[in-house]
Amino acid sequence: MNQILLITDGGSNVGESPVIAAAQAYAEGITVNVAGVVDDGSVGEQGSIEIAEIARAGGGMSRIVSTQQLSQTVQMMTRQTVQGTIRQAVNHELRQLLGVESVAELPPVKRAEVVRVMEDLGETSPLRVALLIDASGSMKPKLNAVEEAIRDLGLSLQARKGESAVAVFHFPGELSNEACMLDLDWSDAPSRLGAIFAKLRMKGTTPTGPALLRVVEFFRETCGKIITEPQQPITLTKRDDMGGVRSDYVV
Length: 251
Prior knowledge:
Layout: E1 2-8, H1 18-27, E2 30-38, H2 44-57, E3 59-66, H3 70-98, H4 108-124, E4 127-134, H5 143-158, E5 164-171, E6 181-187, H6 208-223, E7 235-236, E8 249-250
Parallel strand pairs: 1-2, 1-4, 2-3, 4-5
Antiparallel strand pairs: 5-6, 7-8
Helix pairs in contact: 1-2, 1-6, 3-4, 3-5
């Protein structure tokens, strides 16, 4: 499973639409979540609309939170997106195999079995999260909260049973024609996440759309083209004699 987690205070102002970029990510099997972070005040109506539209186009979720809530929100969105991906895939297979629309329509015993397997998959399925940090000038007062959130997310992912890896980008890049910069390639070592913040210089414009497209390109370069149809990584392969579903899943 593959996610982009965008941390921003809204208001992209350079380059392609971030909504179109998020839709491109989702078309390639990458879910886009957005954490809109505020200090005192708000991101403004336009920023709020943009944050929600990016997440909607990217098949993910959005939250606008204070700096104090950021760490908890980042972890929550990551976990819920994993479970949502698994739930959608399982429901798809149930429709194909049994003609039911969701797990809720299964008999109680089989429903409990499938839910248990879904929970296990949430902890064991491989997960890659690319963090995309808005480093424009307006984010400077929020940098400490972003740093704490990323460190906590790294520890949370390390506690999973399955393979987890994080990559980190910030935008804009150091050069005028650079949409964003890679600060950390895929890593499963949360201790490496803290070192990136010494490099960040908060300045400049907010090219959110071009930055998202660059991260999608990074997924292609490092993971291959993920999938052409999102949300179908799981297959239910068997039915038992009673027409229920056995816990034979392929990820």
